Fold this protein.
Amino acid sequence: MVQADGAGRSLPRKENDLFKSIVKFYETKQYKKGLKAADAVLRKFPNHGETLAMRGLVLNCLERKAEAYDHVKRGLKADMRSHVCWHVYGLLHRSDRRYTDAIKSYKQALRIDGENIQILRDLSLLQVQMRDRHGFLETRKELLRLKPNNKMHWIAYALANHLCDAKETAIQVIDAYSNSQEERSATYEDSELALYRNTILEEMGRYDEALAHLEATKPLIVDVRSWRERRAEMLLYTRRQRRRRSEEEDDDDESSTTSEEAARSAWIELLSSTEASGDNYFYHRGLQLAVLPEVSAARCREIMRTQRACELPTDAIELSFEQVERLDETYASLATRFPRGEAFLWIPLTYAPRGPAFERMLDSTIRRLTKRGAPALGSSLERLWEPKAGEVVSGRSRGREACELTLRLADAHVASLREKGRYGGDPNGGGTVLEPPTSLLWVSYLRAHCLEWLGDLEAALETIDECIRHTPSAVDLYEKRARLLKRSGDAAEAAEAMDSARTLDLADRYINNKATKYLLRAGRVADARRTAALFTRPEGGDSEMHLREMQATWYELEIGRALAARGDVGPALKKFVAVHKHFADFVDDQFDFHTYCVRKMTLRAYVSVLRFEDRIRGHAAFRRSALAAARVYLGLYDAKVSETRADAERVEPEAEITENDAAAAKARAKRNKQRQRKARAREARAAREGDNLDAPSADASKPKQQHQEDDDPEGLKLLAESRPPLVEASDLATQLAEFAPSRPETHALAFDVAERTGKILLAVRALSRLDQRCVAAKYDKLDGFYAPEAALVDRLSRFVVVFGRAALADGVVARVARTQIARLCGGGGDEEDLGKLVVAKIRAFAADSPVLPSRVAAATALARLEPAATDATAWVLDAALEEHPSRKPLGVKHFENALRALKLDIRADPETVDAFRATAARRFPRAPAFFLPDDDNNNNNKTPPH
Amino acid sequence: MGERPTLDVSFGDIHTQNVQQLRKLNEHTFPVKYLDKFYQEIPTLSKDFTQFAYYGGFVVGAICGRLEPMPDSTTKKRLYIMTIGVLVAYRECGIGRKLLEYLLENASKHPEVALVYLHVQTNNETALHFYAKAGFEKVGKIEGYYKRIDPPDCFVLCKPIHLDTTDPARITAALGLPTDTTATTAAAAAD
């Protein structure tokens, strides 16, 4: 890795040979021998910089970090003009994942020896890892210039161009390279390069060319499936592109029908290529679009690139009667050709318009799948009951209507199966043999699922109990029962039920995990730990450490929340931080692929990994852990503030603290605290660095993978070492803003931080983003709840409380803030009276969104500004009785939150609180949160599930 | 009404990981309750005579047989069927028969198994008919065998496997029954 050429400067021959041997020993991992050789040189030349540096590098591999850094630094001091020393320093940084520092060192080395291939190569890896795309391009260009006969340099240069969006150049480089090849054959490498080139053409929108290129390179291709998929996809786009052009030129396109036919048969061929490919929804998407030539090329490509899992073009496209017929015909003929392909029967149900035909289809789906024994049928049907944002709803049976229809059909079959042993209204008379007993079981199970979705949890429980009496050995049924109890608001009973389901099959990790999760939701942390430990490796050490090694993020998030809910801040933070570390590891895991993929020519996969890694922190697990950690930090900060305030009040009991003074006091307290914390953090950091010098850092020790005991189970060290809570929280808010910019909680958090730091413009920016960037969430009215707007009115009212006075000041800042807030309140009105504007906005929102969580947010916001207003509590009470006509009913959590808000935030009078409690108790009779204060003698200490 | 379908069941071992499913099955199938000791013993028994029957992925029936020493022989064993049960909803679909066949077929592969026997409550016509069809014969009756259910009496049914005698007296002796079939109480209880 380190080049010895021209190095070993000014050493006599013997020592120079020894120096070269150090490099060799290092590269062959013979570290002990390397040390010996270095010692031999240093005996005679104790200040030889490059030898010192190399000795440090070897020590680093022996996990002797402190000595390693010491040696390398001494080496550098002795020989600042040596590229070897700088290179080694870079390698050291890299091994500790300090990539930016490593890049600096490499660049320093290159300043001395600009044509050092090894250093250039190492630099390019770091640049692509850090996504310094243009730096990467420059370095690759230099490498290609220096060694144009190396094939990898061509490929990497093409790739660098592609990453920099210089696609045209990328194609040219690939072509230049390919043309220089004497003979091309169907090897993996040539095949992959051709397909890679093809994806670039596609990204440029040059579909005709891509298609022609596919045909031309066919003899080279070994990945035939990919080739066929690409061809089928290009056929979708080209004919549309051509047709559009011909329409523009008013030209008759004769090839259009034949190419439509070609596209269709290409997709059908793919669907029928293997047993499993009939269930490949990517192929189904292609087929649907091939059957719907009306859809534009751009829209086709968008659908093909963005739809996931079982999503279909017909979910998002309104269909004419004639189009439905065309699709139906296609699927009908495929269903006869491939009788085992379930998707051909299922898919027509998902786009069928409302009406008797749809009902017949739904009925036959229920028969077919319950007969086969499909517990997931209800979940599959939920895509009809709960259409996602952007899906076509009009003209189709969706929402409650679809669920109620399913329930009606299931009811009829349950009755008939019980009575006659046959499905109801069996069209064929059912033959002489009766249905197997499982048909009744699964229809009843579906019935329970419908009832659950419709919010009739008691009836669902009754139904599931019938199922259990029918087949008492089926774990799935107990799992469902536990879930129903959870939805009824009884977390404790739910945990009991899931745990007893677990005992039925001790070898089933799935049910074990479920039981763990339910125990955590019920606050039984110790039991949950024990349960989770059952599926960790018994032979070594701490099961919590093992779960961390396995990157079990779901577990860490759940246990972190459970710990945070009961105030165990340190341990909770530890879990959230662990999730963050996993993501850092995921990003780091790319590193090896930078060389590997280019060498092995797996370019398509490589580019898609890079793009995936760019977005990885947008994953829900990252989002949730960041948010949860930030909330913990904010809680810590608030606790400190109120502590300080209490101290201040003790000293000056006469000092009255008004709202705005409180904000100032907060800021003062914060500054003091920050100063203290900074000092403490400095100490901690010094101590930590001291530690690091002896012990290998956590990351470096990773390859050892030994089961160590956790040295900080309470997270005390973590808390001591972290920066002031507001700094940590604001750091997390920044990360969320980058990786989850369209989530309302991101900007709500940004506001919550700004509110505490007293930064008015940041607060305003957070509010505007909440309004503008969460458009998708805004229209995602799954339960008729406008999450971004609810967060917005809540924060607007807090803005008035915290920044109200500041916003009235003179100057640009205050003016900008005023204008923005007024705009967020719907414009118009007097900018000088923000309180009034916000109150009007709150009232408008409450009127517009009559569902409970919106009303709770509005009422909380109103109570904050106008404590005397009486309509706030009425909003909540009305909403509690309201039922959305077509949506899934609200879950118990919304009611629990509402009750808490009524008591603590809205400060409603006891009668109102009790009226709400009674309403909630009627809907959720099992939920301890709504028991009369008299009956909950056991439930006082129970924290409601979050 | 049509005829009940014959269900295509598969068999699976009963081990400590899934023995609680047997408990659920028994609780919903038999009028008597078995003690924890029973469920601890089952996973230790030979899988040749102790099996679950699965249909559609779930346990729908089970047979639990135990090899016991013969009082009058050192080489021969007798095979006692402790329980054979099929969930109510899955009855009359041939599952019990298949479980019994499984056990009998394995028994015939074990030369030391002299006979198979079991107890049936005297009023259980269905069971008596079921075993008669499988070649079992009544060899005795024990009064007051059951403690908590009525009638408390049971028949002892037996089917010879590798038996070197046809002498009914030897059989009743092997089962520890008095030669007089209207014998008095036996000590054993269902659990």
In short: The helical segments of chain B are 19-27, 36-41, 95-109, 125-133, 168-174. Residues 10-183 of chain B form a domain with the Aminopeptidase fold (CATH 3.40.630.30). The interface with chain A takes residues 1-5, 7, 16-18, 20-21, 24-25, 27-28, 55-60, 87, 89-90, 93 of chain B (CB under 8 Å).
